[in-house]
Structure formats: C-alpha cells, structure tokens
Amino acid sequence: MSDPVRGTAFDVLRAVDERDAYVNLLLPTLLRERGITGRDAGLATELTHGTLRRRGTYDAILGHLSRQGIEGIDPPVLDALRLGTHQLLGMRVPAHAAVSTTVDLVRRTSGHKPVGFANALLRRVGEKDLDTWVTELTAGLGEDQALSISASHPVWIVQALRDALGPDGDLRGLLDADNLPPKVTLVARPGLSDPSELPGEPGRWSPYARILEGGDPGEIAAVRDGRAGVQDEGSQLVAITLAEATVDGQDDRWLDLCAGPGGKAALLAALATRRGAHLVANEVQRHRAELVEQALRQLPDVEVTVHDGRHGPWEPESFDRVLVDAPCTGLGALRRRPESRWRRRPEDLATLVPLQRDLLDRALDLTRPGGVVAYATCSPHRAETVEVVDAVVSARPDVTVEADHQWWPHLHGTDAMFCALLRRG
C-alpha cells in the first residue's frame, strides 16, 4: 500500500458501510497488523474518526456539488471523497496534498474512471472553508435541519436530544461535544488496584477514575492484567450508584443481567467482593460472555452465565441488587462510537423499547423486597429512559423510583448515561 495511513482509514470506512464494523475494534486491529504506530497511527485515527463524526456535513457539501447527488456516487469513491473533504476542511493538511492523496486513493481502489470526477469535486470543496460552506447550505432551513448539517447529526437524533434536554438545555453544546474526541478514562478496580498507581488526572465524579491525555492504555500494567480497565466515568457511576444504595438486611447476592462486554460487571464485582457478596454476571450472547470473562479474570469468584435475561433460570426475589444495563440505541456514546449516528434508525426503538421494559420488569421480579435495581442505558432518548421506567413502575405498585440521573458529555464530560434507581417494596 503506497499510503498505508489513508488506506487504513479508507478500509475502516468501507467496513463500516459494508458489514457494520465497529471502529473501536477494527481500527486498532488494522493498525497493529500493518505496523502503523506513533504519529502515523494518530493520523489514521483522526482521519477515520473525524471523517465519521463530520460525515453529515461533508455529505451535504459533496451532494451540493455533485450533479448526481450523494446517492449517485459509487460508495467506495464516496468514502474516499469524505476522507479528502475532512483533510481539506477539518485538518491542517495542505490543499494540494489532500487532493492528490485522495485522487491516488480513488485510482488505487476504484480504477481510473472516477479519477477526474474526484479531482474536480475536491478542488471545488477546497474553494471555501467549512464555516462558509455551512452558512451557505443551512440558509433558509429550519433549526433542526440546519443543526443536522452544521453539527453532523441525523435530524431524528437532533430532535431526540432536544427532547431529552428540555427547553432550557444547551443542544448546540451537546452536539458539539459529540464531535470532540473523548479522553481515555481508566478505572481502578477496588481491591485489585488503587487509582494512585494509574497515570492521569483524577476523574471529576468517580473516585476510581483517572483521565489520560493520550497514549495507549494497553501499555499500562494494571490494565494489561485486568486489575484496572478502560471505562467512561458515566459507566463507572452506574455501578457505583447501585453499589452505594442502602439495602437493609442481607446483601450477598448481586446480579448484572446484561453484563457484556464487562466493564460495569468488573467494577461491580470488585465492589461486591470487598463486601463478601457474590455477583452473577449474565450475558445473552456467548461471544460477549467471553468478553465478560476476560474483564473478570482477576475476580474468579464471579459466576458468568449465558441466558436471555428475560427467561434465565434464577428464582424470583433471589437477589439483593440487580443491574439492568439494557441494550439501547447508544445515542449517549456518539463521540466514542461516531459510526453509530449513521447506523441507527428511529425504527430501532420499536424493537429495543419492549426489550428494555421486559428486562427491567424481570429484574424487579428477581429482586427481593427491600432490594434495589439500577436501570441504565447509554442513551438519553426519553423513550429508552424515563418512559421505560414510568411504563414499568406504573404497572407495579410494589416498586418505587428513588432517584434518576442523566449525565451529559457537555456538562459532565461523560457519555450521556442514564441511570434510575428503583426499590422493590
């Protein structure tokens, strides 16, 4: 490959489009396989993540300039053009280098036929800066449509986030935060490591957190051997919220009903172990259960099970604390998983919301009177958060909501995690 950095970014974009690949898993793998390290790895990461984050804006520009619109551009050529547009408008790459490297990429991956088209289109993109393009393309549009282009979020997500924030919320601040690369956050698992032995600054909210400015967390010994992990502070706060809730009487049976890939389960297990409690970490998919086992490898007393959480073999009222980290749209982690905003559709809620309600209802059945359930989603969408809780609790006079929390990237520096604490009466 004559340009392995741009070629790797291109390959990741194609994998996202063709087979719904996850960037956070695929990109590090390709970088290792191709021996791309240091500044080149950083460039490949910025090219990939930056292009995906700003794809909505770049597509609006490319669609405006192309006579056939976005839909008429061959997908591999379109991905190359997106990479070129990001270099022209979102990075400090000289215009001639951005155009020539992208044209070379098009020639190598799609042949000679689209080369002239790509060259001409990118030269037109480079005639104006990003702010000028956005101003021109959003003139006369409604507020949500304009935000969709300028902040690079699908309109339905803009509307969902506006609804979740409420009338006084800083929607623009949230959308901008989604487009910033998140810092790497570490968690020291209690009893296995101490935050003081980890690099970075203390977290704002979790006593176990350390925030890194950069670097590879895999090079940290405590992370390599499972005594610490990489975990957003919002995710840590969910486990802490459940663990710190008051429970009268016995407190030795804990359950994580949807444990994959294992970050919350590992912190919860460490907290449980220090109190002499036993955690069951359940996951419906075998390959994700294996990830849970890997995360829990320093906590061998935890029981990892593979069941549909709605129908697992546990006795009613047999647990003191239960975590339901429910499958969701993931709209709270758009800065961390930039491809999600283009992958998800509003119709996904029709499948996810009934599942979320069923899992929460089952968790409450499995909790003894006086015990607590934490219901969490990495999404602030009201249909997946307060509306799920309200629907389940309204049909259960034996349950009360003690608290709910919504953390935000632009306010707390975390993913947009939701957590409600419910008590079984």
UniProtKB/TrEMBL annotation:
Active-site residues, record numbering mapped to chain: 378
One BP annotation, GO: regulation of DNA-templated transcription
An example molecular function term from Gene Ontology annotations: RNA binding
InterPro entries: MeTrfase_RsmB-F_NOP2_cat, MeTrfase_RsmB-F_NOP2_dom, NusB-like_sf, NusB_RsmB_TIM44, RCMT, RsmB/NOL1/NOP2-like_CS, SAM-dependent_MTases_sf
Pfam family, one: Methyltr_RsmB-F
Residues binding S-adenosyl-L-methionine, per UniProt: 258-264, 283, 308, 325
Presence of keyword Cell membrane: no
Residue intervals of the SAM-dependent MTase RsmB/NOP-type domain: 158-425
PROSITE patterns, per the entry: NOL1_NOP2_SUN, SAM_MT_RSMB_NOP
Keywords, ordered alphabetically: Methyltransferase, RNA-binding, S-adenosyl-L-methionine, Transferase
Family membership: Belongs to the class I-like SAM-binding methyltransferase superfamily. RsmB/NOP family.
The protein's name in its UniProt record: rRNA cytosine-C5-methyltransferase
Native source species: Aeromicrobium terrae
